[in-house]
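Reviewer 2 asked us to include a model.

Predict the structure of this chain.
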Amino acid sequence: MTEMEKRSSEEMGPGLVGDVSAKSVTIRQGGARSVSAHEVTIRQGGAARVQAHEVELTQGGIGLARADEVEVTAGAIGLALARKAKVDQSTATAVVAGEALLDQAATAVVVAGTARAQDSAVGLLVALKVEGDRNRILFGPAAAFAFGAGVGLALWLLGRFRAR
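Predicted model (structure tokens):
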């Protein structure tokens, strides 16, 4: 175990590190491959993978975040898996959460029990309950199913004609 992994609280500045494990981790203008902690705060930095109870990201990026609570402000996240995810003036590829809160955000896919969105754009939204206004939702579940069926039919027909 490295010295970095033995400490209970870790604060990192500019530069890149590999794997970090501590009770509390703060990254400022730096990056890490993997972070495992109770609380993770990233400001103007990034991490490929984060496992924590609470994740707070400001002006940075995370590839995969697994946490009880994820909060992204003016940043980007690939995949957020959380009980509660808040995406504020940020972008996300996919958010899977019990409760998803979007404010001026752009997301490709949101799957949630409850989705609350304000002034946001979502490619595919699947939620039991949706609240908010001034949003742009490209596909709901029914539209996504119809689109997929249409593309599947077109590809099948194309395959049949090419076989001849």
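Residues 1-8 have pLDDT under 50 and may be disordered. The chain has one domain: 3-163. We have added this to the supplementary material.
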